Amino acid sequence: MSDSLYNAQGVVSRIDWQQYIYLVRNEALKLAVRLPTTVQLDDLLQVGYIGLLDTIKRYDASQGYTFTTFAIPRIKGAMLDELRSRDWLPRQTRKKIKDVTNAINELEQNLGVPPNDHQIAAHLHLSLDEYRKVLLDSNYGQICSFDEIQTKLGDNVDALIDSDTDNNPFSSLINDETRDIIVQQISKLPEKEKMVLTLYYQEELNLKEIGKVMGISESRISQLHSQAIKRIQSKIDL
């Protein structure tokens, strides 16, 4: 494989693809911690390598972005496209996930505040344990949700809250109204859910590490993560 590739402008790129393999591995590992064991890390890596090579072809340094800033969302996007194409979540589970999102939206409209898990479970006529089981299932099924938001708006939670997106090459992919909704919904999240997203997406801790920081189980962290995503999804159609 040649280290020199033609970019979108027809100019030979001198970027050494081997120098950026670590970016592919980093993004694959972040996704892998939330995926079923049926999804192999090697599969994500292979797709990520293709995404890296495509990024090198498209990169234009004159736009003012570093290669790393330009590459990470595209590498992640290639992996998310692969996961989405597999459609491995059972139809019944998908229905339950949609029911949760709808319930959160309805309850918030009725209550005027974000509903807690007890209220959501009651609204769905589920026990608390049954509801939390749905959250665990959906945390696998909705792997793309928040990552897609990040791919569009920036590399971490700060990028979602910071309104200065002029230097974000992907800000044009989402309109101002949608961006405002996302920012508002994150700011309204219960503190525990907001902390989970911050530690996961900004500090890049895995679910087990977040559990240790917050003093609760890894499965509970997974549930909080999933519930936070559902709150955001209930207000936006991505």
Question: What can you tell me about this protein's structure?
Answer:
- With 238 residues, the protein is mainly alpha-helical.
- The chain folds into 2 domains: 5-86, Rna Polymerase Sigma Factor, Chain: A, CATH 1.10.1740; 91-233, Up-down Bundle (Butyryl-CoA Dehydrogenase, subunit A, domain 3), CATH 1.20.140.
- Helices cover 66% and strands 2% of the residues.
- The protein is built from 12 helices and 2 strands; from the N terminus they run ββαααααααααααα.
- It has helices at residues 21-32, 41-58, 67-86, 91-111, 117-123, 128-141, 144-153, 157-161, 176-188, 191-202, 207-214, 218-233; strands at 5-6, 12-13.
- The protein has a two-stranded antiparallel sheet.
- Strand 1 (5-6) and strand 2 (12-13) form a beta hairpin.
- Helix 1 (21-32) packs across helix 3 (67-86), helix 5 (117-123) packs across helix 6 (128-141) and helix 10 crosses helix 12.
- It is elongated and about 60 Å long.
